[in-house]
Design brief:
By secondary structure, the chain is α/β, with parallel strands linked by helices. 32% of the residues lie in helices and 15% in strands. The protein starts with a strand and ends with a helix.
Amino acid sequence: MKIYLLNVAGILQPESQSFQYPAHNKDYGIEQDFLIWIKKQNGIVTSNPAEADWHYLPVYWTRWHINHNFATNDEGLAKLQDEVSKAIIDDKKTFTITQFDGGTLIDTGGAVVFTAARTINPGIDIPILCSPHRRPPIPVKKKYLATFNGSFDTHPIRIEMAKRFAGHPEIEIGGSLPTRFYKRWLWAKNYNLRTLESYVALCPRGTSCNSFRFFEAMQLGVAPCLVGDRDVRPFKNFIPWDEISYYAATVDELEELLMNLDKKDALKKGQKAYQYWKNELYYQKWCKYIIKELEQGT
């Protein structure tokens, strides 16, 4: 397989963005990560677009949209559309990588879009990654079947989940807690600690179908459970997700899963999840699966 890197205007690759999420994350994401990786693949990259099987469109979609007020009132879209249209040679041979909720937000023709945060937009699912969390120097004792920390207003399934498990002694559903240690390390009310205290990390969908929490839990060695109407765990043809994670389409399914949870199995899934995150799905590791997807005729 040969891939040609399309030439894009410099403004389509902003050097930074005005807002970072999650709060602990560096100003770096999968869009920058894949471009760095593909440039190092000398056996794949070609300088001749005619001989290429695929053309890669290296736009930093997330930085662009964040810097243009999340495309509110279509801010920035006309300029973005114009520059992207200039860059694309053959849309049927083009693919791009985006993390932004809603994808590119412009017309890319028949281009294949690999997306980390689908809402209603189509796309091929990929990991939504962030900087690693700190881990304590000693093991954390398990206290809960499952926990969740975060906002509830980004999707109805979160509200339903909170109501269903309110007051449950083994399932902790909390509000927005800090994602760094600070003084709350001593109070054990930190996102990291609560996750580590769990057999399962609840990762309900929000605005998008995916969740940073899913891959954060993997990094912390806790079995993640994606909760939502779409199973967006990426690279299903290559990653044995049922061996390292859980999925529940509804809160009813989630309740049944948790009430029948095999704790020993959950611990094994968490340990294996960490190994997959470290060796297969972290920055620079996940990129090879894009090539595998393209080779399958995506």
